[in-house]
Amino acid sequence: MKQNIEEIQKEIISEFSELTDWEEKFQYLIELGEELPKFPDEKRTEEYLVPGCQSRVWVAPKLTEGKLEFDADSDTALTKGLIAILIRVFSGQSPEDIANASLGFIEEVGLAKFLSISRRNGLFSMVQKLKGYAEKV
């Protein structure tokens, strides 16, 4: 059975708690980004671009059997890791659950504290784009 958003967040918090410093945490995020499937070139358009990000980030949704799945990519390694962790939380969930999700793991693992202001703003722009897709379905 697919984990719900809260269970996935708890799993992420647990994974980050095993990493001792921010260098390890950033490296882990980069590794998560490297695991993303190849993003289709035809979706590298303005429609899928996340506004408000310093880096270029694309997110494309698809609805399958009432659940949203996301493809994503970025032109920088750390940002790609950030979007990877967000789509890990949201992919395979119902639009309603995504729209109503509170993402406590962002604070819990310290992302909001340790990211630069521009990256933090970008992270919240990514969350808004993902939730925006859920609200439109």
**Number of helix segments?**
7
- Strand arrangement in the largest pleated sheet: 1-2
Largest sheet: 2 strands, antiparallel
Q: Provide the gyration radius in Å.
A: 14 Å
User: Per DSSP, what share of the residues sits in E-state strands of 2 or more residues?
Assistant: 5-15%
Unreliable residue stretches: none
Q: Terminal Cα separation, in Å?
A: 23 Å
Helical content stands at 40-55%
State the total count of DSSP E strands. Answer: 2
Which structural category do the helix and sheet elements fall into?
A: mainly alpha
Mean pLDDT: 95
Q: How is the quaternary structure best described? A: single chain
Q: Could you give the order of the helices and strands? A: HHEEHHHHH
Shape type:
globular
